[in-house]
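step: validate -> pass
step: tokenize input -> pass
step: predict -> running
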Amino acid sequence: MKEKITIADIARESGVGVGTVSRVLNNSAHVSAKTREKVLDVIKARQYTPNVVASRLARKDTVETSVGLLLPDLTNRYFFEIFESIYHRLRGLGIDVVLFNYEKHNPKVIKRILDAQVSALIIFAFCLDETEKNLLRQWNVKYLYIDYYQKGEHSIWANNRRGGSLAAQYLMDKGARKFCYISVTPPSDATENRLKGFTETLRSAGYENDIGVYESTLNETNGYETGLKIVSDGLYDGVFCYSDEIGLGVLQAVRENNADIRVIGFDGIHSTRYMRLSTVSQGPGQIGTTAVETLMNILDAQEDEMEVSYEITPFIVDYDS
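step: predict -> pass
step: emit ->
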């Protein structure tokens, strides 16, 4: 029996992604002449006839390619705002978005991604292991990290240490003199670097007293409960929160008790504007836009490029909280 050739086989032998093969089949202008010729040579050599899936991809009323988004937690409002920006940008380009929930180092997740034949993958806030990376590379699926720096990989990441420093300066400027930080569980490089920048700036300004550290999970409810504890302890008048979601809960606890405590969050989500929570903003909407532009450049590159590393510089949005 003659071996069945698939679009994925053509992609692998051509050294391109399945989305590129689909664009060649669709006679899209968004493929270089060199790449088109290489793909067509493989198609001719293997006597490939597009199957139903490839034919559907080639129809004019459907998108030409798709991008997968691998998210650990869609309930995180910061991630959701980045996702929302990415979704609208990609749909504007005629590209489908396929959402995958991440289960830590579960090979079935990568298999689902490969089965979906996405052209590229955007990964939020964690690193793939070597097995997962090799599977994606084997099938020429490009990937980009967001909110996570990985040396030698394409990534968009925030300068968390700089953000912590900005938070410390903000609280000092507002008159706070006794400071604490609310970390997030489980721990991460991001929370450690934010605390490091926060502590270093306070120490350099002459604040040698112990800086308190509390812990919260990543939601308003636990932020509120932690805020009540800080108010009850009565030890601090300046609170830096790992995230805006935690900060919103803390701010509510402070306001309910009329406590003289300054609060600043981190991320820059929409609701800080309405709740008047000052924040160290990463500009989530702009991160989404930058991610799409970066990914399109990676996909359009004729050959694998050096790592694309884009550092987000956080900035203060002051609502006098």
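step: describe -> The two ends are 72 Å apart (CA to CA).
step: cleanup -> pass
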